[in-house]
């Protein structure tokens, strides 16, 4: 059972029980210690557990420490590994460092040295993860990571490539999940402001009474809970980009203050009198029609025109179906790496199901589905039977679906598709499929015969 205190996990690998017990005694309380008596056991635990640091003995039977080290680095090159040995060998130390070890300690262990090294290496691992995350944010924001070959995405690409280098105010519109923040990040990280902050704020997710404070900040005592001064998003984004997502969520009085900030390039904190100059590029996004919101009196017309200098419209995924296989492949590669899986790809049939589905949640929904598929599958290729059933059946109906034949025919067609899907998921095993369907195998065989389904696994 995982430690309730959520302590950093240290894996100690040594074939001597006394050494394992010593490490447990030294690190107990500050770290969660797990142990392995062989290299293979260590690799198995690293594959399954969220290990933060490895202490690895060099001299072990079957697979020595250097071999284990190299295999660990193949699995996770950023996992800190400290080598341990009974002899202080400079040659071994150099070889270990060259193979990816972060440090080196010798037996008998000094208690303070072990604790100091463990703390240092765990902290180094955290910093490395932060660096990797920040790098990934920049990598994700590259233009080439805007995946697609459709005419509509190419039009978007052409617009943002032109406006990235200037300071034009941009309004990105599109349904939820179409990738509006990705576009905003791509514009920022390919602009002259790329070394400065990119600050996103979801205007619809923050309570109305706090939104003005979030945007403009407040002085101590400005309201009941204002125990100290707080900088707003405008100040934090100074010289960078402020991304206002779901801009339609702003109430009218905040809209007025936002308009002033855009026009005058200055703000005033709540409860303050000081005028603060700000240099911020504004990129906003909406999933509602702001023109209609203006007509309904819910959005200021002058602010709308101030935000909509360069409009960028993102089409829903159902209107750019040729991009779905590319996006699915991109997310498959990403989650293969994240989960250390080797899913080979999609069958032609499974890609057809993905392509014909309407994706009401757009790219976000597709991303989540691929993540789920990779997480649940051990290997091989993604088959139609692996897909969530709603995607399978809705894609099966497709655009060619007709109502001819009435309800009885529709029921028969549905049963046939459902049985095919279950057989696919059961790898053709009729006994297993019948159990899933809740019917006897003989009943399944009769239905397969009447529906013209192949007995792909007869006798199993």
Mind sketching the topology for me?
Elements: E1 9-13, H1 17-27, E2 32-36, H2 39-48, E3 53-57, H3 65-75, E4 81-85, H4 90-98, E5 103-106, H5 111-140, H6 151-163, E6 170-173, H7 180-189, E7 198-202, H8 208-216, H9 233-236, E8 241-245, H10 252-264, E9 266-267, E10 276-277, E11 281-286, H11 290-295, H12 301-307, E12 310-313, H13 324-339, E13 345-346, H14 348-356, H15 362-376, E14 381-382, H16 389-397, H17 406-425, H18 430-437, H19 441-451
Parallel strand pairs: 1-2, 1-3, 3-4, 4-5, 6-11, 6-12, 7-8, 8-11, 13-14
Antiparallel strand pairs: 9-10
Helix pairs in contact: 2-3, 13-15, 14-16, 16-17, 17-18, 18-19
Q: How would you summarize this macromolecular structure in one to three sentences?
A:
With 460 residues, this protein is of the alpha/beta class.
Describe this structure in words.
With 460 residues, the protein is α/β, with parallel strands linked by helices. It has three domains: 9-137, Response regulator (Rossmann fold, 3-Layer(aba) Sandwich), CATH 3.40.50.2300; 143-315, P-loop containing nucleotide triphosphate hydrolases (Rossmann fold, 3-Layer(aba) Sandwich); 319-451, Helicase, Ruva Protein, domain 3, CATH 1.10.8.60. Helix content is 48%, strand content 12%. The protein has helices spanning 17-27, 39-48, 65-75, 90-98, 111-140, 151-163, 180-189, 208-216, 233-236, 252-264, 290-295, 301-307, 324-339, 348-356, 362-376, 389-397, 406-425, 430-437, 441-451; strands at residues 9-13, 32-36, 53-57, 81-85, 103-106, 170-173, 198-202, 241-245, 266-267, 276-277, 281-286, 310-313, 345-346, 381-382. The strands form four sheets. A five-stranded parallel β-sheet has the order 2-1-3-4-5, sandwiched between helices. A five-stranded parallel β-sheet has the order 7-8-11-6-12. Helix 1 (17-27) links the parallel strand 1 (9-13) and strand 2. The longest helix is centred in the first third of the chain and has 30 residues, at 111-140. The two termini are 38 Å apart. The model has no long low-confidence stretch (mean pLDDT 84).
């Amino acid at each position: 059972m995982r430690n309730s205190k959520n302590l950093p996990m240290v894996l100690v690998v040594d074939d001597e029980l006394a050494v394992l017990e010593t490490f447990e005694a030294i690190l107990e309380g500050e770290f969660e210690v797990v142990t392995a008596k062989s290299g293979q056991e260590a690799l198995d635990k690293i594959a399954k557990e969220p290990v933060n640091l490895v202490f690895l003995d060099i001299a072990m039977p079957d697979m020595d420490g250097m071999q284990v080290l190299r295999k660990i680095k193949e699995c996770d090159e950023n996992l800190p590994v400290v080598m341990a040995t009974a002899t202080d060998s400079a040659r071994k130390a150099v070889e270990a460092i060259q193979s990816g070890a972060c440090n080196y300690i010798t037996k008998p262990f000094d208690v303070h040295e072990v604790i100091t090294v463990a703390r240092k290496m765990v902290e180094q691992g955290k910093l490395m993860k932060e660096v990797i995350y920040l790098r990934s944010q920049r990598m994700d924001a590259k233009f080439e990571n805007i995946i697609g070959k459709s005419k509509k995405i190419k039009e978007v690409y052409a617009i943002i490539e032109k406006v990235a280098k200037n300071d034009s105010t941009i309004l990105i519109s599109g349904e939820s999940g179409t990738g509006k923040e990705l576009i905003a990040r791509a514009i920022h990280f390919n602009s002259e402001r790329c070394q400065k902050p990119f600050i996103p704020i979801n205007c619809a997710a923050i309570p109305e009474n706090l939104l003005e404070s979030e945007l403009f900040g407040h002085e101590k005592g400005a309201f009941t809970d204002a125990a100290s001064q707080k900088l707003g998003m405008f100040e934090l984004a100074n010289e960078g980009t402020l991304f206002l997502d779901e801009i339609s969520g702003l109430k009218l009085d905040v809209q007025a203050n936002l308009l002033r900030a855009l026009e005058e390039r200055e703000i005033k904190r709540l409860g303050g009198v000081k005028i603060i100059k700000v240099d911020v590029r504004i990129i906003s996004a909406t999933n509602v029609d702001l023109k209609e919101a203006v007509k309904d009196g819910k959005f200021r017309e002058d602010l709308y025109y101030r935000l909509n200098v360069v409009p960028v419209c993102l089409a829903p995924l159902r209107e750019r179906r040729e991009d779905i296989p590319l996006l699915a492949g991109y997310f498959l590669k990403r989650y293969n790496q994240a989960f250390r899986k080797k899913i080979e790809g999609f069958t032609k049939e499974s890609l057809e199901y993905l392509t014909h589905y309407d994706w009401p949640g757009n790219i976000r929904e597709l991303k989540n589905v691929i993540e789920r598929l990779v997480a649940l599958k051990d290997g091989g290729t993604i088959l139609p039977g692996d897909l969530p059933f709603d995607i399978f059946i809705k894609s099966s109906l497709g655009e060619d679906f007709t109502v001819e034949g009435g309800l009885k025919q529709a029921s028969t067609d549905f049963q046939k598709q459902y049985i095919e899907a279950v057989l696919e998921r059961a790898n053709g095993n009729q006994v297993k499929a019948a159990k899933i369907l809740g019917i006897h195998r003989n009943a399944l065989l009769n239905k397969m015969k009447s529906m013209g389904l192949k007995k792909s696994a007869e006798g199993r």
